[in-house]
Amino acid sequence: MSVEHPWPSPGRRPTARSALSAAAHAVERRSVDWVPHEERHGRVSDLGSMWFASNVNLTAMATGVTALSVGAPLAWTMVASTLGSLFGTFFMAVHSAQGPHLGLPQLVQSRPQFGYLGASLTVWVFALVNYLAYNTSDAILAGSAVHGVFGVPTTVGYLASAVVASVVAFFGHDWIHRVNRWLTWPMIALLVVLSVAAATNEAVPPLTLAGFEPAPVMTVFVITAGFQLGWAPYVSDYSRYLASDVPARSAFWWTYLPSALSAVWVFVLGAAMAAASPGAEPVTAFAAAADTLADGFGRVAIAALLLGLLSVMSVNQYGGALTMIAIRDSFRPVRPTRRARALAVGAMFAVVWLVSHTVGAERFTAFYGNILIFLAYLFTPWTAVNLVDYFLVRRGCYVISAIFDPDGVYGRWGWRGNAAYLLGLAAMVPFMVTTPYTGPAAALLGGVDCSVLVGLPISGGAYWVLTRSLDLERERRLARDEGVLDPR
């Protein structure tokens, strides 16, 4: 997206027409297509505010509530949340490092591994479920928060929140970054104050490392790792506009450190505040904890966390819209226009509204806990295949035009990627622990869920072996002839 001045030249007063023109220029015009080098802009440090602020909201903090509900003591819930966050954020941040070099949305990068059609029928469908599930959780909490702060019905609260988020999502990449920059420092101040409230709250149980049980502790690890891994399908959507010469190491650290810090902070806070109000809904527990610091502060804290939630809702609306467009494009070419993205954002709005009403606030914790675990299962083998392909197999050398060509060098069906994905997922099944199912291997381990630790090496290793037969020299030659990507 080219950077243009929002107003006419100095000396000329803005007119209604010029204001509309400025608004039109502010709307991102690209969607799932490649970002040309001349349109790259922004600083790598922008990733810091993007990924710190994205975790400071009601849904992320409710992850701590969900983690505590698993049954581990508070201290062990905090330990497992910290380790899970650090683990899941590593893979998320590595994906972020792909964006500047490739200039593509994250999921479009899956076509070389899974094929032009194969990616849409496997990875992208799961990604769409990811967006819908998280945005449903956001919607439920947004309705509860608006009801608590302003006293309006929860349905009205969701609709108002979703409208705001949809507008930001329609304006696109730059505005999502801008909103997160505005939120970063106020959110840091809010977390500091909430930390003081939690530390001085006598209702929070004392921390002790007694009562360790491996099964619930490992489930907490999977939940928090899954939350952070849930960013992976769209993390490089927000680094793809950076200049192609931005070092991968810089993109990694500006994503990893801020995101891991905010994730650990909000998960631990969420668990502590939930422990002080056993059985309460997340919004109620957070407000009660904040009120212990000063009467009425709970409403202020919920309002601030609601702003963060509106921001992350826009991120999910934007990513879901890109995924819908990409799936449609795999079967019939779609022009990546503003109109296409507006229609996709509207579709996300409608579907999430229907699903959130079906789930309801009273079933939020059970619903949210299950989606975190299942999405961790679905995206573990994908992240292994995608990263092994980028860093070990093709080493960042791709033919951009072929990614958008069903008859290109990557083909319609990437059997290697799909086979490795399914093999990794199958290997995980015996180690899974869910409400309706516990795998035989997990049962032998006393209910310990180590499926993620199994799926990563098996999927990645299988893909690496299967790609030994690829004609990589031909692909490199085509990439050099195309001259789009800088050689690596």
From TrEMBL:
Coiled coil: none annotated. The chain crosses the membrane at residues 74-94, 114-133, 145-170, 182-200, 215-235, 256-276, 296-319, 340-360, 366-385, 419-437, 443-466. It is a multi-pass membrane protein. Its main location: membrane. It is found in: Membrane. Keywords: Membrane, Transmembrane, Transmembrane helix, Transport. InterPro entries: Pur-cyt_permease, Pur-cyt_permease_Fcy2/21/22. Pfam families: Transp_cyt_pur. The keyword Transmembrane helix applies. Belongs to the purine-cytosine permease (2.A.39) family. PANTHER family: PURINE-CYTOSINE PERMEASE FCY2-RELATED. This is Purine-cytosine permease. It comes from Streptoalloteichus tenebrarius (strain ATCC 17920 / DSM 40477 / JCM 4838 / CBS 697.72 / NBRC 16177 / NCIMB 11028 / NRRL B-12390 / A12253. 1 / ISP 5477) (Streptomyces tenebrarius). The lineage of its organism: Bacteria, Bacillati, Actinomycetota, Actinomycetes, Pseudonocardiales.
